[in-house]
Predict the 3D structure of the following.
Amino acid sequence: MRELRLKSEMIKIRFMLSLLLLLAASVSATAATLSGYVYDRYSDQPIVGAAVTIEETSFTTTTNADGYFVFSNIPGGIYDVKVTFDGYYEGYRRRLRLGTQQSQEIEIRIKPITADERADQAQAARAFGALAGTITSQTSGAALPGAVVKIDELGLGTQTGIDGKFQFLRLKPGRYTIETILIGYKQVKNYSVDVFGADTTDLNIALEETVLPLGSEVVVYGEKPLLDPTVPATVRSIERQEIDRGAARGISDILQELPGVVEIDNELHIRGGRTYETQYMVDGVSVTDPLIRQGYGHSLNSGSVKEINLYSGGADAEFAQATSGVVEIITKEGQEDFTGSINYRNDHPFGDASFNTDQLEASLSGPEPLTTRLVNGVGLPGETYFFASGNFLLTDTHLPFSTNLYSETFGGSSLAPRSDNQYSGLFKLTYKISPLVKLSLSHSAAATINQDRSILETRIRTIDFSYGYPFEYQKILDDYNTFTQKSNQQVISLDWRFDIHKQLRVTAARFFTTLRSQVEGKNWKEYVQPIDALPDTVLYDEQNDIYTVVKGDGFWDGGDGDTWYDHYIENYSLKSTYETEIEPNFTFKTGFQSEFQTIQVFDLFQPWLSESGYGLNYDIYKAQPSTHGLFIQNNINLNGLIFDFGVRYDLWLVGKYAEDAFEAESLSVLSEALKTKFEDETIDLFGRRARGTFSPRFGVSNPISRDLTLFASYSRFARRPSPQYLYAKLYTPSQATYQLFGNPALDYEKVTNIEAGLKWLPGKRVAVGVSGYIKYISDYIAATSVAPDPRFPDETYFLYFNLDYATSQGVEIEYVQDFSDIVSISANTAFSKATGERSLPADILRGLETRSEGAIYNDIAFDWDKPWQFILKTNIHVEDNQDVSFLGMALPDDWNLNIKFWGQAGKRYTPYQEAVDEDGFQVFVPSGETNSKIGPWWNSLDFAFQKNFRLDSYTVTLFFEGLNLLDHKNVTLINPLTGDVYKEGDTIPTGGNLFELPPLGYELPLWENPTRYLAPRQLKLGLGVSF
Amino acid sequence: MRRALIVSCTVVVVLVLLACSDKFKFPNDLPEPTSGGSFDTSYVLVTPNWTSANGLNFANPNDIVVGYDRFLYVCDTDNDRIVKLTETGEFVEQYSIVHPVAVTQDLAFDLIAVCGNYMVISPDRTDTTFYGNAIYRRDHSENGEFEVVWRAESPYDSVQVQGGFRPIEAEFWSVESPLTTTKDYYVADFVRDEIRQFSGIDQPIGTLIEKGRGVGVTEYPVDLCYYEIAGFKYLVYGQGYGNLGVQPLTLPAGVPLFNLETEADTLPPLVRFNHRGFKDVAVDERSNFYVILQKLDPLLNANLYFHKFNRRGEHLLSFGTNGSGERQFNLPGGIDYLDGIIYIADTGNNRIVRYTLSTAVRQ
């Protein structure tokens, strides 16, 4: 068996290698000769002195007295040849294919400009503006012919002539981004270039030479627009500088600062979606783990991140498996400069504001001489660069988790000295083979050890489940489970630019993530049932010779945690995208993606129960699904009116494990009707059943004035259900009452996302963005009760179906303004409503109600729905040697202060009231609709201060950071009788709805649950050195 | 280029292979794939079963009782001992007593036990020693052994035994403390068909429930169980001819807590079995009743040992066929309840088994 598995692994690896080698083998360079004549289109006279240019190259010449020109030693390829001559329109010969050692002669005829046309141009010049300039070499000062100059917003492009000059005529007045590209030089972006009517804006650019691949380095001039008006959707980017200026935090904390992103119980919800609907990608490769509640299976530290992009509205057809948003993390890579940093922070000096936290981040990057010598030594060109980063974060948190954790899968107890222990590292090697070809290899790994049980997506969340804290084990936390999450990712990526306009990227990757939860490294057979054993108090009344026994307090006094769990997911993926700029205003992108996955789950609940040896409830499966997708994406820019449209087609193979379940006669949970449905809805693909879906995407942005752009998008997304909804318990029904069975006949969950908004940039440094959206979610997964045999209506069980519908709608407003070089502010607010029939697929257990398929749809607000939220941020940044004063007092230089205040609606809850049942017993009944009430609002004031001290090439940085500075009590556990936090002496309502009330007989003092509030104030000091 | 790719890929492959070792391997003894089933609420065995205490295997344990002190007391009948265990089955102490079949504990932590119909006939058959007509007490404050604190003196009736008839004036099958400060207790007298009340100093006070077949009377009482609901006290008694009765010890004012068939009936038989195998009853904090039969009788449709009823006497579920596996019993003798766990003295299998509801939700 093991050999078979190994063989399977090797086959996958060989497949990846073969594809990459195939691509590499096709890389070749040959020389050709091109000659030809240039004539007047009407008179057939040769044009003397016309400039002839092979675009995207430095080949340029002029015609002789015969109108003749010639180029020699041109590399084989496909080219556009351009002719310019005063008094004539530009002439082109497009897509000229030059083969190996080929000589080719061509003829180009150019059209003269008539007198009337000249007059029209002169008039237009008064209504329109123009942009002109010269591109030169920064080193030599020489003019650079053949450089491509583009206006991003308008989709216009031109090429410099032999004198290095370029010009754009008839430009609408406006503010533009000018991009200059030439192979062998660093790319330059000039932001916010103003063009006025009846005027020509001069723009002269000096390009800096580089040996790095095209696009590796971008030199930026001017201020980047605070919102990008060319993107017809809501895409929010957080760049390195912004990450550095805030308090040190994880990626999920960074994402929370964006409108429409809400965190409740350690889960991120984007625009009202369920957690698992978000797609997390690192360097273009999915790192989503649908079996953990947080959704992302690869917890990289923010120090290794170059940029984070959140696509919360429409997204390109390139993205799959995301019905609620895409989080794209781009990691850093090494550059020519040798840089490094090491930062250490802790909160020890701050007494009550300390969680016993230590955090270390280190990174190093630059040229990698050893590998460079190695590859050069074997005759290969190019240079290699590396980036390495490592991080650990050790903290006892604000919750009383155990400090004696033991992880059987990661270092025993030696790597778990605190309650929450996080490690991550990234090593990336970039082999820059030529200016057009780059190969990247990366290996990253992360591990987390703690007792946060909320990580298990396969568990339901009862009312006291707050933040995964095992409150009932509070007295024996050492005997509760340790959760160890480990992940690693290997990515090999080839970026191959055929020329400035065409690019191929091939990425082969492996992603592995695993989660183990067990008590002190025990086997499940060693687990002991927890007990609230001995009475806490025995009082003796000597006079009456009687004892008074005070019952246990409801906390477990002995025994073990209730779970033994292990899962792993291993993904092998291959993705290729090809992008070409067919015209300066028309970009076409296409690609495919294949992913082969192995999912193994071993999940035991209450292992001390049942003679089976596997507990009250267990789930054991290993499935191997795969997905394959094709997409095309187009971008057309019609003088500023931008159309984005694309479509993707996905195929999903649920795998042999699930298909066999339909054939297994002994498994009664899958009926004949389900089998028929599955066969009807799937197609045969190489002997396996595959399910396909189309997802069209469309977006448009229209600049209706110089400052204002409107945009709208329509997108369809599809997401295959998470593994537990497909495979759970297919072969392992146990004695538990509430078992939720997977259904391999499930279809994709589908989302239609409609978004419209505006981007208003009234000044260079001020921007306002408004977007409204509505998402219709169909075929949402939900479990329901089924009775497979009508003869036995009492024999029912819970099975997942594509049953639910949901909607999410809202408005998001952003405002950004830089008041000066020093002070900038930003604010955003969001109003939203996410409703559906039930919050989660397992909500069938909510009150244990049942509902048959097709029953009437009834809206409730989702558990995580936050009707409003806002964030206000101010950043004060003083550069080195910058003179700044405040109220006449000179301030020191070289520091940064970032202040953030955020607020949002409180947690939703269902109100309850006391009542008496027919037998006279006290009961608690809902006094309002599910989730109809909102608890006290949440807010927090955070800050991060950094002061730099320059010592030669070193910079020493002092950090001082604070979270929840006002120590606001953000309520997470709400008493549904009072609508406020549980307070001592409160009646604790109990009942059958475990999601809203503790169970009958619940005795724990919820007012002592440390998770009833979010984290209190925390202050941190730190010191860093960088060079 | 090609060589560069080969070098690069080799590095990746090594990393991949190194990382593969993280995979958990399924154990070899996985359960066989099984069919669905009904997945209704049921009781699940808590493992392991308890088969011994203090190095001695249980021998016909007739009863298990949750004491007032929240320890468990097992009447290890044929080993002539009562064993004190923790909730997790750890041995604490044991007390010698001949053939105990039922035990209770009062507010002073004293143990009071009875011995059923046990008697010993001398080898020459001339003398018979009766144990079932006496009440035994272990005084907690003296930390001593069980002693006889009351014994019937006058002949009341006679039953046929091997070799002739024996006189008998009482045969105690069950004893229960209502946890009063006076330390009174009740004894089920199987032969006299009555439930008798004794004082805290072991003197008969009177008859709580008299002989008779019908509402408010008893016949062949075999077990007693005291419980409280909403501050009111009740005694449920099992009867050999097959039903349960509930005796309110403090009557609630106004509307009775139980739905009576007629308002005049203050002592309704809540549950009726068409069978005489009834043996023991326990009540949980929500006043659900747990009943075990000692014998099955398919002819009378008594096919399962364990039965659960709600406080209105409505049947909830049953399980327990004859055997020694999970959810099987062999002449079970005692049952009690504590914190969601049902403890059953599986007498014929010489073990104590525990069951809990299957309704726990994974979280």
Q: What stands out?
A: Chain A touches chain B through 104 residues (CB under 8 Å). The first strand of chain A starts at residue 31 and ends at 40. The radius of gyration of chain A is 32 Å. The helical segments of chain A are 2-25, 115-127, 240-245, 251-255, 369-377, 656-663, 672-681, 723-727.
